[in-house]
Amino acid sequence: MCEFSERLVAWLDRELSFEEAAEVERHLEGCSECRSGVDAYERASGEFGAYCDEIMESQARRGTTTLVQAAVAVGAMAAIMGLVLALPRTRVEPPAFHRTQAVAAVSRAIVAGGIPAVATPIQRVHRRHPPTPARNQIANSGAAPGQQSYTSPEETAIQIAIPADEMFPPGAVPEGMHFVADLTIAADGSAERLRLSPRLAGIERSTNQP
Amino acid sequence: MSGDAANLALPLSRLSTGTSEATTLYRELRKPLLRYLVCLGLSSDEAQDVVQDAFLILHRHLASGGSQENIRGWLFRVAHNQARNRQNRYDRNFSAPGDAELQAASHEETPERAVLEKEKFQRLGKAIRLLTASERECLLLRAAGLRYREIGEVLGIATSTVNDTVDRAVKKLAEKCNV
Predict the structure, then answer these.
(1) Do A124 and A151 share a domain, yes or no?
(2) Does B96 touch chain A (CB under 8 A)?
(3) Do B170 and A57 touch (CB under 8 A)?
(4) Which structural domain range is residue A33 located in?
(5) What does the pLDDT look like over B136-166, one tens digit per residue?
């Protein structure tokens, strides 16, 4: 074994002085044993690092399946919010809608009376900034049918945007992700249907460009 | 590998006071710690727990006037011991072909390249599983950017032993998969 092998370790860790490092580098040029050792080390550690990254990524992918469990919790939360909204029969003043804040939540009456559900697309609001917490944001679109839903809710579809970082620890989901809960409330105030879909703010922004 | 060696030394002044310094340290070391723990075999949730605990212990350690020398090595040692305490899960990610190998290279452009990459990863995974625990740990800590001396401190072995162990591991990997 070459006498330099000990010093190579210190050289790799950049613990040598400038002169010592230069000496090791000169030696490396001449000594094929040391050079191939360093090459092998760098190749192997590069491959090993890539393998570790892949393990990390696959763990992160596996982590997304736990989102389903989280979605159930979110559903429960959304249902409670829905109940709070739907139960009062008196007129509820909707909070002011700030377009500049780009509130994602849009609620809208779909059905009136006994008429079967019309597949009215839920109006989407152009979003410039990530939405702020949902509980402050149940907002009315301002349209006449929307207002009606607060006075006589026969069946109400409510869309609530929930920023993911409200529900998950930092780093658990990609940055900028939030969930949109489509909540349908029956006449008796129970949550009839709930659909939860993850959204990436960046993607939504681009598709909603006028 | 040695490219980030310049960042290895953590200026001690940064740790003296203030939360912003602690935040910097957390931001800098959280990811390498998580990667090390996940590669040791912890799930991401467990790894997050261990990292939180390690930083909590660090906070107590510094608050009680503990040594500020080599905080990086210190944190890895705490995390390593915490991971050891969860022995039942230990080494899980290296014990069988994992998703990493099955899903590796799915982002490759052509199917041929993807197949080649996948084969390479499978060979590498097999070779890594044949390493001893301490060989794997040395390589993992090396991949996390620790110096030989620091690895020795984390694992409680001499620096020269670390050197020999890394050498042996590298040779084994090179033999098995021509990396």
Answers:
(1) yes
(2) no
(3) no
(4) 5-53
(5) 999 999 988 899 989 999 999 999 899 999 9
Q: Dump the DSSP string for chain A.
A: --TTHHHHHHHHTT-S-HHHHHHHHHHHHH-HHHHHHHHHHHHHHHHHHHHHHHHHHHHHHHHHHHHHHHHHHHHHHHHHHHHHHHS--S--PPPPP-TTTT---EEEE---TTPPPP-PPPPP----SPPPPGGG---B---HHHHHHHHS-SSEEEEEEEEGGGTS-TTSS-TTEEEEEEEEE-TTS-EEEEEEEEEEHHHHHHHT--
A140 forms beta bridges with A107
**Same structural domain, A100 and A175:** yes
A98 inside domain: yes
**Domain check: are A69 and A44 in the same one?**
no
From A13, A34, A53, give the residue that closes a domain: A53
The rounded distance, in Å, linking the Cα atoms of B74 and B88 is 24
* Segments making up each domain of chain B, as ranges: 12-94
For residues A95 and A169, state if they share a domain.
yes
Are B36 and B76 in contact by the 8 Å Cβ rule? The answer is yes
Is any Cβ of chain B less than 8 angstroms from the Cβ of A9? Answer: yes
Let me know if residue A120 belongs to a domain.
Answer: yes
Q: Are residues A91 and A47 part of one domain?
A: no
A177 to chain B, closest Cα gap in Å: 19
Q: How many domains does chain A have?
A: 2
Q: Is A142 on the interface with B (CB under 8 A)?
A: no
To test the contact with chain A by mutation, choose from B33, B38, B118, B153 the residue with the greatest count of A C-beta atoms within 10 A, namely B38
The CATH code belonging to domain B12-94 is 1.10.1740.10
Give A56-115 pLDDT, tens digit per residue. 888 777 766 555 666 666 677 777 666 666 655 555 555 555 544 444 444 443 333 444
DSSP string over A55-88: HHHHHHHHHHHHHHHHHHHHHHHHHHHHHHHHS-
Q: Residue A172 falls within a domain, yes or no?
A: yes
